[in-house]
Structures are given as C-alpha cells and as structure tokens.
UniProtKB/TrEMBL annotation:
Broadest EC class assigned to this enzyme: hydrolase
EC number from the UniProt entry: 3.5.1.89
One GO biological process term: GPI anchor biosynthetic process
GO molecular function terms noted in the UniProt entry: N-acetylglucosaminylphosphatidylinositol deacetylase activity
Name of the protein in question: N-acetylglucosaminylphosphatidylinositol deacetylase
UniProt cross-references to Pfam families, sorted A to Z: PIG-L
Originating species: Aspergillus avenaceus
C-alpha cells in the first residue's frame, strides 16, 4: 500500500509539473516564431521600414555582432538599404588593435557592410580603456560628420547603461545623445536596452516580458493589415496615430539572421572564449533587440 501511494503521488506531481513546465517552453517558442516571421515588421516604427541609410555606432570591434545583430540585419534583403558601422576604438587595450581591426572588417563583410562603410575611428583621445570616460563632445562631432557624409536617416547605439556597463559603451550613448538632442530635425536615434543579468541570459524566455509593452500592436497586427511603407492600408491613408509605438522597437532575428550574426562574431577570434559559446546560444541580444527612441 505505501508503495502504491508513493507511485500515485509521483504521478500527480509529474502531471502538475507538466502543466507548468510545458507552457513555459511552448509560449516562448511560439512567440519567437510569430515575431521573427509573420510579424517581423509589425513591432517597429515606420522609420525602421523606410530608412535608406542606417548607422550603427559602437565602441569596440565585436559589439556589432554580440549585441546588435538583430538590428544590423533587419531588412538585410532590401537592396535599397545601406548599412554603416562606426566603431570608435580598435579594442587595443590588450595590445591587439591591429588584429581586431582586421577581424572587424571580416565581420562587416559577413553582415553585408561594405569596407567603405565599416569605419574604425581610432582617435588618440578615444582609445579602448575600461577606466576612462571618453570625450562626449568629440563623439558628437564625429557622429555629426559621418551622418552628413553618409546621409544617415536612422541611428542605432547603446543606452546609458551600455548593455555590459562598460564605461566606453556608456560614453558612446552620451555622445550620440548629445547629437540627437541638438539636431531634432536630424535622423532619430534608437538605443538598445540594457537588462538584468538574469534577463540577459534568458534567451527566448525573456521574449515574453519584453513583448508585453507591444501587446496592443501584436493583437492589432494579427487582426488588421499593417500600414504599408507608403503610409497606407489597403490603398487608403492610414491614420496618423497608427505609428503610436514610434518611441520603441522590437526587432527579432529569424533563424537565418541569427546564424549570420554568429558567423560574424566567429570572425572575432581574439575575443572567443569558452563562456562565449553559451552567450551565443542563450543571450537575448543574439535573438532580439529591444530599443527605445533617444530624446
């Protein structure tokens, strides 16, 4: 009898556990494939769908593939879009600057960024240093120069926390923020959002809470057509309020772009380590980017 009771208790426990565990696995799986494929263009502002010259501003070689893969590869098949990368240092803190510059060029090639648009600034006052705050005014000046040179109409960069907290990342945000605030008629800037350590490594699991602010748009996208790039729905003018999520964006990479970002990081051999193998699989930043408009 005790053995029979124990077996029944175990069966009930397994059934109860499965009712909790299965949804925790299925919901992120379904949500990911929904947002990466049929709704891939529905959780971004109109400027993401229409921009022709997109600029990514980072601090070090490998930032573009470790953090910004989904944003960099958004609309990767659109031949009318030109992507540019402005990297402010060559990552020479440990004396590997020459190697990291060559790695950056190979990563850019993988991401579809041409040699002319893959620029390593490497200014004497902006050297890789985890203890030095970079000159914000100098960053602003350089960003302004390249925005004008390349006729940029959309900018991606770090948020004030810099994803990893690196002081150079945070300085980049400060410099780009200065440019954006001083040029309200210029290209809008969107900052990649920093999350806690737990959420950072939750992979698809964190897509559920990340998508919550976009719930209204997800529901609307499932039941109504999305406004086209020309601002119309079914040939009729869309209401001005249709882009009510213009201050935020959720860009989810499909499987092809995820592996493309992995290959891009693979060119940064000097930065590869055992823990990075896990990062490439479970980091939210490899799968999706949650961005907010810089004001």
């Amino acid at each position: 009898m005790p053995r029979l009771l124990s077996k029944r208790y175990l069966q009930r426990t397994v059934r109860k556990s499965s009712t909790i565990v299965l949804p925790l696995l299925i919901i992120p799986f379904v949500l990911y494939h929904l947002l990466a494929y049929p709704l891939a263009n529905d959780l971004v502002p109109g400027v993401f769908r229409t921009a022709k010259s997109i600029l990514l501003v980072t601090a070090h070689p490998d930032d573009e593939s470790l953090f910004f893969g989904p944003s960099t590869l958004y609309r990767a098949d659109d031949q009318s879009v030109t992507r540019s990368l402005l990297v402010f240092s060559d990552g020479n803190y440990r004396g590997l600057g020459d190697l990291r510059r060559s790695e950056l060029q190979r990563s850019c090639a993988e991401l579809g960024i041409t040699v002319e648009r893959c620029v390593n600034v490497d200014h004497a006052e902006l050297q890789d240093d985890p203890h030095k705050w970079w000159n914000e005014d100098l960053i602003e000046e350089i960003v302004a120069e390249y925005v004008k040179k390349w006729n940029v109409d959309l900018i991606f960069t770090f948020d004030p926390s810099g994803i990893s907290g690196h002081i150079n990342h945070r300085a980049i945000n400060a410099g780009v923020s200065k440019y954006v605030s001083k040029n309200p008629q210029g290209p809008p800037g969107y900052a990649l959002q920093t999350k806690s350590w737990l959420r950072k490594y939750a992979g698809w699991g964190d897509l559920v809470p990340t998508a919550v602010p976009f719930t209204g748009r997800i529901v609307r996208a499932l039941v109504t057509p999305r406004p086209g790039d020309d601002g119309t729905v079914g040939g009729k003018n869309a209401k001005s309020g249709d882009d009510s999520y213009g201050d935020k964006a959720l860009v989810v990479s499909n499987w092809r772009d995820y592996f493309r970002a992995r290959r891009a990081f693979g060119h940064h051999g000097s930065q590869y380590s055992f823990d990075r193998r896990f990062y490439l699989i479970i980091s939210r930043y490899m799968w999706y980017n949650d961005l907010r408009k810089m004001l």
